[in-house]
Write a structure and sequence with these properties.
Keywords: Membrane, Mitochondrion, Mitochondrion inner membrane, Transit peptide, Transmembrane, Transmembrane helix
Subcellular location: Mitochondrion inner membrane
Largest sheet: none
Membrane topology: Single-pass membrane protein
Low-confidence stretches: none
Number of strands: 0
Pfam family, one: COX8
Order of helices and strands: HHH
CATH architecture of one domain: Irregular
Family: Belongs to the cytochrome c oxidase VIII family.
CATH class of one domain: Few Secondary Structures
């Protein structure tokens, strides 16, 4: 009977709702202003990082199909 009461205590602890404190989010202006040129360079680098390898694979797809 003691094992049953212990296991029921574990189930109650698992089913108990945990309250998560609310995050204090406040909008503030940016510390450093990012210029348009910097944004263009960053977005170009991100797109090239993703699109160049995938484009290369798609361009050589027939070569991959011919491999044994």
């Amino acid at each position: 009977m003691l094992a049953l009461s212990r296991s029921s205590g574990l189930f109650r602890a698992a089913l108990r709702q945990h309250l998560t404190p609310r995050a204090n989010i406040s909008a503030k202006p940016a510390k450093h202003v990012v210029s348009t040129g910097e944004q263009v360079i960053a977005l170009t680098a991100m797109f090239l990082t993703i699109l160049v390898p995938s484009g290369w694979v798609l361009a050589h797809l027939e070569d991959y199909k011919k491999r044994p």
